[in-house]
Amino acid sequence: MTTRIEYGSKDAADAARDRHEEYLCTDDDRRLKTVAYSDADTPDHVLDAERLEAEDSRGEGSDGPGQVPLSDGERDRIDFGKARASVPHAKAVKGIARSEGVEDWVSYYDGTLTVDEHREVMADASRESGKRTDEQESADEKAADAAQTAKGERCDHARGHCEAGDPEACEFLTETCGYDEEEVQQFLDEDHADDGEQTELVTVGGDEYPEMELRPEVAGALRRSWGGYKNAVGDLETAIADARQAVIDARQSWRAINRIREANGQPELHPNRLHTLLDSLDSMPGSVPIVKTLDHFAQEPGGDRDELADSELAEREPTRPDPADRRPDDLRGDDRDDEPAEVIETADTFASEGQAQLSAGVSPEETPGEDRQVTLTGENEDDAVGPLPSAWTREGTTWTAGPYKVAIDRAARNDWVVRLHGPPGTIDVASGLPDAPEAEAVAMEYVDLIDPDEIGFKSTNETVQVAAAEAKKAALDDEGGILNYT
C-alpha cells in the first residue's frame, strides 16, 4: 500500500524526499509535488509529521485553523520525545487551541495523540475553563482591555498616595493618568480629616464582588485580596479534580494487580500507601492553619473594629505564597504498597479509613425485622434518629432507609458511582462503572445484601465493605482478560 502526500511546492516535496528517502516507494516521481510513501516501511508518526509539513507548505488549510508559530517558552515545555511530538504537530495543535480559546494549550498537549484527536481535547478544555474566545473580539482588543483595566487600578492607587502628599504619585497622575495640574493641586490643597487621611471615597466592585465605597488605599487592598482569593480557589478546584482522577486510576491499577496475582496463585496485597494518602486528605481541613479575618482582629483584647485605621486594614491584606514554595507535605505516606494484608479491603472504592464515624448496632436478643432504635456516634452522644426501617424503599435509582440513602451518580464521562449517604458524610460503594445500568445493578445487589441496621461507617466495620465487594462481583460480568482488570 502507498500513502501519497501533496506538498505546496516542488521544493517542499523534494525536501521531504531528502528527509525520508528510506521510506519512499519505488514509483515515487520527483517531477511531482506529490510524494509516495510506503505504508509497510513508514512509521505513523513520520506520516503525521509530513502531512503537517505538507499542509504548512500549502498555506493554512481550509478545513482547520492552520499552524501557529511556537514561542521559545512553549518549545521548552513540550516533550518532543513522544511518538508524534514534533514542531509541525505542536504548531497545528496550537492553532486548534487558539480557535477554541484555550490559552494554556501546552498543559493539554499530548505527543501521543494525532492532531484531529486534539480537537476534542481542546474543546473539552475550553468548556471546563470557560475561556472560549469571542470570535468577534481580537487578541489585540483583549490585550487593550486588560491594559486599560490595569492602568485604571494603578491610577486609583496613585491618586490615594498623591492626596496623602506623595509627589511621585502626583507626577504619575499628570504624566500617565491624564490629570491636569489644577486637579492635582486641588488634591494637595484640600483639608484632610483624621490627621491627613483622605475623606473622599472611591467605589470598587459591583461585578465580580459586592460594591463598596472605600478609601483608595483600602480599595486597592480589597481588589488584590479578591484576586488572590479567586486564584487560590481556582487552584484548589483543579487540585481536587486531579486528586480525584488520581485516586480512580490508582484503584483501577491496584484492582488489576490483585486480579493478576490471584490468577497466578498469589495472595492479594493491600494498598497501604494509597490509604495513608487518603487519610491525610481526610484530615487536611483540621490541619490547615486558621486565617484571621478583620473581625478576628477587632475582637482581640483591646481591639475595636471602628478604631482600626484604614491604613492598618490595608496593611493586613492577605498575601499568597509563591507557587514554587508550596510543598505537598500533607500528602506524604509510607512506601509499603507491597506488604501483604491479612484482611483485604475488597471494597476498594472507600475513600478513606479515617472518615467520620457512624455506627448502628443491634443486640443479638432483638427480633429480626423489627424497627430498631439506633444511635449515630458523632460529636454529641445524644444525637439519635427515630426507629430504623428494616427494609429499603426504592424511588427510581435511589434507595432510602431512615437516615441512609444509596444512590447512583455520574461522576464523569463513562464513570458512574454508587454512593452510600449517611449523617456523617458519603462513601463510595463502587466507582469506575461504565454506564448507568451497571451502576444500578450494583446498587440493587448492594441493598439486597445489607440491611439498614447493619450499616457502619467505621473502618473496623467490614459489613459495608464486604457487601460492596459481593455486590460488584454479583452484578458485573467477569469474562476474563487483561482489559477487564482495568
Characterization of the model:
By secondary structure, the protein is α+β, with helices and mostly antiparallel strands. It has four domains: 2-129, no CATH class; 139-200, no CATH class; 220-331, no CATH class; 372-485, no CATH class. The protein contains 15 helices and eleven strands. The chain has helices at residues 10-19, 44-57, 72-77, 87-100, 115-129, 139-163, 167-175, 181-189, 193-196, 216-263, 272-287, 294-298, 310-315, 436-449, 463-475, and strands at residues 2-6, 34-38, 202-204, 212-214, 372-375, 384-388, 393-395, 398-401, 404-412, 415-422, 425-433. The strands form four sheets. A five-stranded antiparallel beta sheet has the order 7-8-9-10-11, covered by helices on one side. It has a two-stranded antiparallel ribbon with strand order 1-2. Strands 3-4 form a two-stranded antiparallel ribbon. Strand 3 and strand 4 (212-214) form a beta hairpin. Helix 6 runs antiparallel to helix 7, helix 6 packs across helix 10 (216-263) and helix 14 packs across helix 15 (463-475). The protein is flat and about 85 Å long.
Average pLDDT works out at: 71
Biggest pleated-sheet summary: 5 strands, antiparallel
Summed up, the domain count is 4
**Low-confidence parts, pLDDT < 50 over ≥5 residues?**
131-136, 191-198, 300-308, 323-385, 478-486
Instruction: Strand order, main sheet: write it out.
Output: 7-8-9-10-11
The topology string of helices and strands comes to EHEHHHHHHHHEEHHHHEEEEEEEHH
Sheet-strand content, in percent, reads 5-15%
CA-atom Rg in angstroms: 32 Å
Number of strands: 11
- Kindly name the structural category: alpha+beta
Distance between the termini: 36 Å
**How helical, in percent, are the residues?**
40-55%
Shape: flat
What is the overall number of helices? 15
